[in-house]
Amino acid sequence: MSDVQQQPPAVGPAPVARPVVHRGRVPVRRPDADTLFSINPDGSRNAIHPADVHGRFQRRKHGLWYLLIAIYLALPWLKIGGQPALLIDIEKRHFYLLGQTFNAQDFWLSFFFVSGLGFALFVLAGVLGRVWCGYACPHTVFLEGVFRRIERWIEGPAAARAKLDKAPLGWGKLLRRGAKMVVFAAIAAVISHSFLGYFMPVEVLVEAVTTSPGTHPTAFVFMLIATVLLFVNFVWFREQTCIVLCPYGRLQAALYDADTVLVGYDQRRGEPRGAAGTAGAGDCVDCYRCVAVCPTGIDIRQGTQMECVGCANCIDACDEVMLKLHRPRGLVRYDSQRGFETGKRRFLRGRVAMYAVLMLMGLSAFGFAVTQRRPFEADLLRAPGRSYTVEADRVHNVFQLHIVNKRPGPRTFKIAVLGPPGADTTVGQTEVALESLADIKIPVHVFVPASAFKTGTKTQLSITCDEPGGELTRLATAPLLGPSSGRR
Ligand code: SF4
Ligand code: SF4
After folding, report:
1. FRET pair for 249, CA 20 to 30 Å: which of 197, 407, 414, 427?
2. Res 13: pLDDT
3. What's the predicted TM-score (pTM) here?
4. CA distance linking residue 23 with residue 29, whole number of Å
5. CB 132 within 8 A of CB 125
6. Which residues line ligand 2 (CB under 6 A)?
7. What are the residue ranges in the chain where pLDDT is below 70?
8. In angstroms, what is the span from residue 299 Cα to ligand 1's centroid?
9. CA angle, 198 as apex, 121 and 201 as ends, to 5°?
10. Which residues, listed in sequence order, are joined to residue 10 by a DSSP beta bridge?
């Protein structure tokens, strides 16, 4: 699998591929660039337990992760101008984004918003490879920032965890694994409840949590499914999500070029490998630390591989070794293929510029469309199933005036009849107050003397809204039907 997606390897002597080494008489499998290390040759799962690592990139990542988790948990509770900061209320088909309110009629705007964000990820991948995956993807943030840390706290460091995996089931293993499962399940439930808070108002969510599941059965089933999926993912599936499931991960090879900055190994400096002090040896002492800390179980010295999520663990691990050996750090570092080969780097390239232009087009079109949106909708629609009737020599048409308040706050609407002249028009309500995103259908009856009816006659209403900066008026028009129009 990985050979299809593989980047051209960095220059220098070919790295030594040693898929199997022996520890005493026991053969130990080592990662190679052609097979998934997380899958054993017999098809069973090879659980990866990355070793602990410290360093500058870990500090940056951890700070960012806790900030992102705090935002994720807090955002559903945050209000802007009395409205949720971010909510996709599926049941009511109302959407809230940073003080802006949208209804189902605005759904087309999401095309520009989502494509703008999608191309932003392309720009990021073109410039910095899988930096999103290693630093900001929710899967990484929760797996590495929360679940792996709890696992370490309960089961110990990597070697102890691997030993526990192989240990026969006894009270010790049962207790540790049981405690881990309970804590993982509780956190998965918290994450899925918080996720629900993006799709239903938190007030309703609190009510759903504090009452019987039957009160909000759909939300309960959704939460249950999400909790189970998260639990299975973080207990078992883990890095396989990044390697085989995530479409963004699969796209990476198509987004990279020779100038994309990736985590890589400087073969020119590192090879040939050898213990410190060995004559003619490069800087790599083959200590295996960069492999031991890798959450996807790859050996970065074999070139860029699809499984690499750009987490920089191997950079910190190797820097630690280099510092101990009093050698410059950066044997494993962020650099482009061109940087590794020639020491030169190029930031601005055609493909990155193209992604950036597409990103700006999407986001600017979204921004422009949002500012140009009508503050309210007012449509005069024929009443369902009715064309016209003739009563006492008068042609009778029935309409519904549909008004939608699209503003974030309440508004009052005044309705006035403008035409046609000579008609007797009655409007169900001439003044109506609507909450944000609320709508109303007001019946409108138009009577025209049969003798005066002409095809093409239109009824027209004006709808005025009390905006803070002054009144806004819209016209709603609809054609009248009558005997000469041929329909009844
Ligand atoms: S190779 Fe390095 S950057 Fe890539 S996933 Fe492994 S540890 Fe992270
Ligand atoms: S951590 Fe550095 S020195 Fe050790 S094996 Fe990896 S690249 Fe070589």
Report:
1. 197
2. 43
3. 0.86
4. 10
5. yes
6. 265, 270, 284-290, 301, 317-318, 321, 331-332
7. 1-26, 485-488
8. 8
9. 155
10. none
